[in-house]
Amino acid sequence: MVQATLFRFSPRRADQWRASLLRFFGAKIGRVELLRNSVRVEVPWNLEIGDSVQIGDSVYLYSLGPIRIGERSIISQFTHICAGTHDFERLDFPLVRIPVSIGSDCWIATDTYIAPGIRIGDGVVVGARANVVRDLPSWTVCVGSPAKPVKARRLVDPRTGEVLSPESDDVPETEPKA
Predict the structure, then answer these.
(1) Number of domains in the chain
(2) Is the pTM of this model over 0.85?
(3) Residue 36 structural domain
(4) Do residues 156 and 162 touch, judged by C-beta distance below 8 A?
């Protein structure tokens, strides 16, 4: 009821108001930069969001199990983060609540699906429309369906030129040719 009224019809820049509503229902949320009024949260008390996070339009946080989003991360529009599924090996299909963890300094681009039980490391960029069905290593750029690392992510301070992120030798610079 609250999500369909107070949250949904709040003014566009009432991000802190919406965060306060989620906190009232048990979410642990730092100071958000952006929390659109079209975001859907299924079970707010299973949600933990760090400081300076941005969550875009029509993001669905299906937090049947815990969802954690680290500081300074961006979750772009139409992303679906799913922390619940069913045990299909049983006739009664019981609900299984499996945590999802997204590190700090990540960017999850438009229309990405993140499956239950996934851990995304710090500094990961996930390309638009990716399907994340396995864990992604820190400081990588990952694309595709299923999403996989295609190169290391370097984060550079534009003022000084200093590299702020670790470089990984484990990740190929380009996707291997078929």
Answers:
(1) 1
(2) yes
(3) 3-123
(4) yes
